[in-house]
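Q: I'm a student working through a structural biology exercise. My instructor gave each of us a protein and asked us to get a predicted structure, then write a short paragraph describing it. Mine is Alpha-glucosidase. I'm not confident about reading structure output yet, so if you can add a plain explanation after the tokens, that would really help. Here is the sequence I was given:
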Amino acid sequence: MLLLTYGLGLIGVFLEHTLAQSVPSFSKNVSDCPGYSLHTLQESNTGLTAQLSLAGPACNAFGTDYQNLTIQVTYETDTRLRVRIADSENNQYTIPESVISRPAAPAISFTNSSDLIFNFEPSPFAFWITRRSGPNSAPLFDTRLSALPETPIPPVITGDESTALDGFSLVFEDQYLQLTSSLPHDTNIYGLGEVIASSGFRRNVAVSGGSIQTLWARDAGDPVDANFYGNHPVYLEHRFNETINEAQSHGVFLFSSSGGDIMLLTPPNAKQSLVQYRMIGGILDFYFFSGPSPVAVIEQHGALVGFPSWIPSWAFGFHQCRWGYASLNETMEQVQAMRAANIPLEVMWNDIDLYHAFRDFTSDPVSYPGEEMRAFIRELAANNQHYIPILDAGVPHATNTSDVYDPYTRGHELDVFVKNPDSTEYIGQEWPGYTVFPDWFANATQQWWTEALKNWSDGGVEFSGIWLDENEASSLCQGSCGTGADLNDTSIPSVLPGTPGNPVPDYPECYNSSISGPSGNITINGTLTCTNSSALVGLSARGLGAGAQTGIDINAPPYAIHNGNGDLSDHTLATNATHAGGIVDLDVHNMWGLMEGKATHLALQDLQPGKRPVIIARSTFPSSGKWAGHWLGDNFSTWQSLYYSIQGILQFQIFNIPFVGADTCGFHGNTDEELCNRWMQLSAFVPFFRNHNQRGAISQEPYRWDSVANASRTAISIRYSLLPYWVTLFANASMRGTPPIRALWYEFPTEPELFAIDQQFLVGADILVTPVLSPNISSVEGIFPGRGQVTWRDFYTHAVVKASNGTATLSAPLGHINVHIRGGAALLMHAKPAYTTTESRAGPFSLLVSLESHSNAFGTAYLDDGLSNPPAESRNVIFSATANELKISSCGNFIVGQKLEALTILGVTNKPSKVSAGGKNLQSSNWGYLPDVQELVISGVSVDLNGAETTIAW
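A: Happy to help. First, here is the predicted structure for Alpha-glucosidase. I'll explain a few features afterward.
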């Protein structure tokens, strides 16, 4: 949740602030940098080590050049290669194992079996990575000067000379590191975030002007083409050779917590494109993943940073929240209204309205009294529902003897807060007034955090999960603002939306008050006056690193990265804020959200032993998915935000944070009936499904409009029927890093017409979702991968799609989202989706099989208790269809209590003369055949999924 005063989303707005930082002591001319020469090479059975020495006079472009570097190349597995370039003095900051643990050094040699090969030139030093396998020997990553343009490249941003590329040698200084690689002109880049990219999910490097991915966590409400909450310097690159119809993917990951810019661009008239890294600290620690499939790249990245945490089955239910539930009674009313409307509600949330004086770990004694909270949450639990509250990053500073606030008192006693350089507590400002911030590097912080969460729960807020907000970390004053301040002042530093004098008056997008009247409750037909596209409008409003280095400008690094807020300390901790051991925030800023998520996960494991923690965090970093999920932040109630949500969800699959979703119906501004209708349908097919909006805006709970309520009931019913599929997809993510949500081209990598598609997506490999993303339309164009060689069937009618040239116009009346099942799929489902996931899981199973043209299908289902962490027992069920029979088998020690009682088999070309189950013929009343859709429906069976193999034949 974000305040409203800083909508600096456009690059042109923030460049004035960023480029105003002057650094007269440095030349800032990287074309003068001499690069390095390699010597003292030592090879081992796992790779090599060598020294790099500056090849000429130091250029000192944005800092002081290191004379000597060390390069270590390690073949870590057959598919992962590490290239680490660091200063030989070990002064630069590196991410410690205590924050992100990595796999142990290889015990065997992969140098001769690795699919990746490290090649180098000694002077000037350059390296390139090639494949051992495949027909294409073109380098995957190439820093040779001969592969790069000889002439300077114009600015990426017109008028911003700092974005011009005028030198490509390796630069390694104490405050500036630069490395450049060539890319094929027609390559496809995905990832690098967190970002809402105007070019779409594909980061097309050939677009005019190129793009910049800035790495600096900041509190900003979903700006376009600018940095905001999270930082993930990893990209997935896909190359397609049309001549031989060959496609291969690989990944590149820079393991660094430093701020920086990653430039993607194509020089004018060039035959290749470029990626250039410009970092303001740390080292150059690269990991390369060989793929060769996109899914394999994502899995290999997960194997390095940590696979996603196990998600309990209840978290796949529908979640309801808003900023603005002023009391417990109002919160309870939402639960009651949802049940009265028969719209399934799994989890109820509270925003900062819950707090007493906006303070973490509290509930207001008047509006949210503790014992009444306890009774409410226990009533939810008795109805198989759950409760999640918010936690903000800033902890209120309370020193007045009459102001008893234990979280601060105890934290001060244990010395767990971030400091100023003079060792006093760093003071920020947030909703409760003056705040301090947990220092996740301090020895006692984990103990303190766990105690605070326990005390909160013991006091009545018996949470099932935790929502981590503002954790970039956000602060409303710049720098430590405690000096001379009245720290007893607990007034809110800004006026909240919805407060008298600060309304949210804007009409919903496309609203025409002259037609509909100013009711704020738009009707569907004839009231929308905008076109089908809409613009998103921003709000008006190993070494210790720099902490131990001399001559470092901590407050204003000489190279000004393109941070959307300009000054790096604006709206967050100052860069000289000091953590335990002398670490300064400049080096670790981007990891604050990750470390809070990790601490919260470990705390919940202690407080709720044996249960899978549910944590949703705003700021993320590589390995965050091991501890938490993510929501896409403070979006807008616009059609463009609806579209952008797909891009964000696809992006976070690459980052191995698959449990992700948007604020359904939009957070900022006022939604309308049609937008909310379409958005509730879309979100029913994404991992994290929550409706949430801002204080002062119109209410948007799905029961508010009849059409939205109807659409929600239908979509959630489908979602709950598909829970076994969701659980299976996320089990694969937790065990192997396999992404649950996929771009179409992941499954069809040799179809270039799919490479830019981000208006549709796949759930797993088998369910294609084609949402409506524009207003006032009743049909949608869908592309159907496979070029006619794959059968796609309508999920509702089971009819085969007739796609001309791979596309079809699909009927999409309000309340209907197009969903299709892929030929060859076999999906285990809940036969009777109910009001909660627990009730749905208690009912019998059904099976939906969609035979491909050759009469084959295959599917698996992972089943466990949905709660235990780690899973104590599990069972894998396998469905395999060939010719006219379906075999069902399983393995594992989890006992499945429910039986498989119904089967639907699509693609049965002729009516069977008989149907048998387990060798026994079924009565004709237990099966039926629909010739128009070639559908065989079987009921009256009771297949034990724990037993021996069962055969269904027809």
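A: Here are two points you could use in your paragraph. DSSP finds 15 helices and 46 strands in the chain. The mean pLDDT is 92. It's a good idea to check both against the output above yourself.
Q: Great, thank you!
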